[in-house]
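INFO  loader      accepted 1 record
INFO  loader      residues=159
INFO  predictor   begin
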Amino acid sequence: MTELRTARLTLSPVVEDDAAFVLELLNDPGWIRNIGDRGVRSLQEARAYIRDRFGKTLWLVARDAAGERLGMCGLVQREILDSPDLGYAFLQRHSGQGYATEAAAAVLQHVREVLRLPKLAAIIDPENRASRRVLEKIGFRYVETRDLPDLGASAYFLA
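INFO  predictor   done
INFO  writer      dumping tokens
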């Protein structure tokens, strides 16, 4: 998996050594509110979550200057969609600083220029206005809101 870089960020593959950060992120109030409680409460469970769920298409996002871990961004393959889904989540304390937009734009560029995927989806909680703004800034367009299995009502976007 390729490392991605932006002006302020480094996106690198999520590995089991990132378990402490993943545990913190999965239990962050923003993750639980917008993505859902995954029931991961220990380092061992976080390592298993990384092995089982993150595969080779999600990057850990860190601030370049400090190397501080901020969140994750990448591609999720869902059986209910006919294309990969752009997903991102950042610790709540790092919201509002443009990191999600910057990381998502880097992943979208990678999808277009390297992976050459014809279509990329994104799904968000319809109430998550900040996430909607991120998607619109990088060129996604709203398609519809529908009930998706295991996700509830979700706004569906395409790039």
